[in-house]
Prior knowledge:
Blueprint: H1 5-15, H2 27-36, E1 43-47, E2 50-54, H3 56-62, H4 64-72, H5 74-79, E3 81-84, H6 89-101, H7 111-120, H8 124-136, H9 143-152, H10 156-168, H11 170-174, H12 177-185, H13 187-195, H14 202-213
Amino acid sequence: MGIMFHDLFSISDLSMKPGIQVPICRMADELGKLWENSLFPDCCLVVAGQEFWAHKAILAACSPVFRAMLVHDMERSRTNRIEIHDLEPQVFKAMMGFIYTGKAPDLQAMADAMLAAAAKYGLEHLKVMSQRALGRDLSVENAAHTLFLAVLQSAEQLKTQALDFITAHGFEVSQTSSWKTMVASYPHLVTEAYSSLASTHHSLLEVPFKDLKQC
């Protein structure tokens, strides 16, 4: 007799039911709790006299620099203690939060320090995040300093962005104290930065080059 009316209703009812919903993965949050609550740590990192407990496996998996420290330095491997001399505690804690969760820290107040930390410890994703934050904050007053940071930390994307900004605002930037400081203290960086653009932006670079020649 074929499919009855109540059978059609049952089939329709089944087709309208939602499929299996996969819950959101909370692994990053769970790893973050390991760091925040110092759960099951196996190494100690010392920053400015403060001790922070962490996990060697996570450090080694996320940072090639930490991995090299733990693999090749027998003293660190034996004592499970790593001295960090080049970071402030606030920057260190923000960096470690990223290592454990992959989530970007608040870069508004520490993007320059975080760029240096990311470059130092081989955290390429965090390095790009820091470049983006600094690039968004480019201004006439900080362009020269940003260019210096980019060259110093081999941050090529930020370097290109800073050069483009300086080229577009050459005269204004050349009048700032940060530009004059860079010309006086790091003339080789200025020469390197502007030689790459001299052929296509000669007229815009005349004033900065005059300042450089006077050093």
